[in-house]
TrEMBL record, chains A, B:
Keywords: Manganese, Metal-binding, NAD, Oxidoreductase. It comes from the Bacteria. It comes from Marinobacter xestospongiae. Residues 5-377 form the Isopropylmalate dehydrogenase-like domain. The keyword Ribosomal protein does not apply. This is Isocitrate/isopropylmalate dehydrogenase family protein.
Length: 382, 382
């Protein structure tokens, strides 16, 4: 079997701290299960690299990364102490740009963020049905509101007009919606294998064991809304076993708080997905536990990228107190993804997921530092 | 004193039912306090009008409405039983269009949606600090994502590209942000009058008794984000007594669930405001209680429009069980707004608000029908 290679980019702030625990877990798994796994650590993209070189990563960064099977990223961005005049400051739009460059450069057109409230995670909602939350939010990751097109006319004057353009193509819309239906089927199959089931009603009253909900704002943003609606209906015809549902983004946010347990798979455009996945992260217990996967499902030449949903948290960086749980869940998800080619990696991913979930369930809410959590998980793995 | 005139547009679904209770309350207040108040009821905009005339409202609708001091709107939209082949169906984008036409036609550039969790309202969050939620979300209501520009190239083919354009002007950005700072000051003054106070820290560490938080997504949608950021900083310089804060829309949604009690005034663009106000409505106890005010603060010739945040709820329409609370809070807010010219109207608005709030607090969670709630509030007013 060919060796699987991972590019590790710890980044800024708490990134290197949580990545260190992920690497320890990878070492334990590799040694114990003789995994054909190796990794290379990169000092970029990062704030420090920018300070030294005037750019967040080298010009050939994507070429270098392309040689790997996956990228494991810590966190980017270092606003630092804003009052320190000697501090090298960068706007977010600069320090976070590498994230968007990787997503676009490697055509990671799927961003997957599952939401489940695991035992031990913080429950923000009053209703105890929150324990039943089990959804997968799938974000279109390649276009839409994130095309960075537009401009500023008469900039800086009282007559200024800023234009921000959103672009949606049939091609990207179709592939993300189809991916959503495929995932819905896979999730239903998994539930059947686990002797579980969920019921969803279609609009014409039939019962299905999975559902895809598409998000638009078609009553106000028509061109995007009509394209998404039409493509959704077309693709749905190929999946009569999957119930379909349509929510406007404002109503969806409301229902994520009022009845999130009613959702199965949710497909949303880039910005709406960004918003809904942050909400979904809270539903799962907050940023401390939420993984994020930027996937290219159809081109094995291009690496997918795995990052926790949280940021670099400069306020607690350097203190060794960041919670590595989200990073470890992310690492587990990466192994499962890589395991599509090598079943032993998939098993390692499941083991890591289970160890982190067991650790979370056993913590009884006490605050533990980064290393302590890493130790506990490594011990469960060993 | 000149008579204040209200155009009442009950609309569709539960709209006429909840409006009926608002009218009863207005009658009690008018008779008891000799208010110079009159109203005219319009059968449009509505689904029924569209069915008969092929349009949701007459061509001169805005001209007719312009003669009034305010518009009190029930709810629009009637998806009806989708399986009934005889049903006259309209897409949302058609039946809800009059809302957007009024907002644009009367330059109602402010949409105000307060969020407070009043006693008796449903608490969705587990943390009891939810009882301290007291924020005002101010939505830019005249442009941005809602300009309805763009189109579909190669529509219906596999090569389709849909474009959706967002436009932001200095003029509309400046006025909505300035309005936010003014409201922050007024809220702080009101708290002082009530012997209450709240503390917010500015970025350079000073303490203020009010705050404005501006929402962008400047790390990904740059042109809009940069304009909003620059104008926010300019306007803030005129209000050194108000603390300033910046949130990205994804983080803001998260914090609305994690720590909504930390917000005071929030200013957001049209679509982001749409999303955040739906979340804010949930924080206040849900759609059953949330008012929405579409205001033109600077042109007394153009009427403002008041509507509950909820929709026409076709699933429960005609049963007399819709909760009129949101409609009654909306009516109270309308009277307060009209009271800028006539202090007795403002007092009537406060009385109505208090009666509805007292009724809400006294309900002990039992389900009551529309009329019962209206009766109870009228009795408190009488
Ligand atoms: C950092 C930012 C550009 C990014 C995004 O908006 O996609 C982040 O919010 C995320 O969700 O991964
Ligand atoms: C009905 C719809 C067009 C409207 C909006 O998006 O503004 C509604 O959601 C609202 O918030 O008033």
């Amino acid at each position: 079997a060919k060796t699987t290679r991972i590019a590790i980019t710890p980044g800024d702030g708490i990134g290197p701290e949580v990545v260190a625990e992920a690497v320890r877990c990878l070492e334990v798994l590799r040694d114990k299960h003789q995994l054909e796994l190796e990794w290379v650590r990169f000092p970029w993209p990062s704030h420090a690299w920018h300070e030294e070189h005037g750019e967040s990563m080298p010009a050939d960064a994507l070429q270098q990364l392309q040689a790997f099977d996956a990228i494991l990223l810590g966190a980017l961005g270092d606003p630092g102490p804003v009052n320190d005049p000697d501090r090298y400051l960068l706007p977010d739009s600069v320090s976070l740009a590498p994230l968007l460059q990787m997503r676009k450069g490697f055509d990671q057109w799927v961003c997957e963020r599952p939401a489940r409230l695991l035992p031990g995670a913080r429950q923000y909602l009053a209703d105890d049905r929150a324990r039943d939350i089990d959804m997968l939010v799938i974000r279109e990751n390649s276009e839409g509101e994130y095309v960075s097109q537009g401009g500023r006319l008469r900039q800086g004057t009282r007559d200024e007009i800023a234009t921000q353009i959103e672009l949606f193509t049939y091609r990207a819309t179709e592939r993300i919606i189809r991916y959503g239906f495929q995932q819905a089927r896979l999730r239903a199959a998994q539930r059947r294998a686990d002797n579980q089931s969920r019921q969803f009603r279609t609009q014409d009253g039939r019962q299905c064991d999975s559902q895809v909900c598409v998000i638009t704002k078609r009553n106000a943003l028509r061109y995007w809304g009509d394209l998404y609606t039409e493509v959704f209906e077309q693709v749905a015809a190929d999946y009569p076993d999957v119930a379909t549902h349509h929510e406007l983004v404002d109503a969806a946010c409301m229902k994520f708080v009022q009845c999130p347990w009613a959702f199965d798979v949710v497909v949303a455009s880039n910005l709406q997905g960004d918003i809904l996945t942050d909400l979904a992260a809270v539903l799962s217990g907050g940023m401390g536990v939420a993984p994020s996967c930027n996937l290219n499902p159809d081109n094995p030449e291009l690496p997918s990228m795995f990052e926790p949903t949280h940021g670099s948290a400069p306020d607690i960086a350097g203190q060794g107190i960041a919670d590595p749980t989200a990073m470890l869940f992310t690492t587990a998800r990466m192994l499962e993804w890589l395991g599509r080619q090598d079943r032993r990696l998939a098993e390692a991913g499941e083991r890591l997921f289970q160890a982190v979930a067991d650790d979370l369930a056993s913590q009884h809410g006490q605050a533990r530092d980064t290393r302590t959590i890493g130790d506990a998980v490594c011990q469960r793995l060993g």
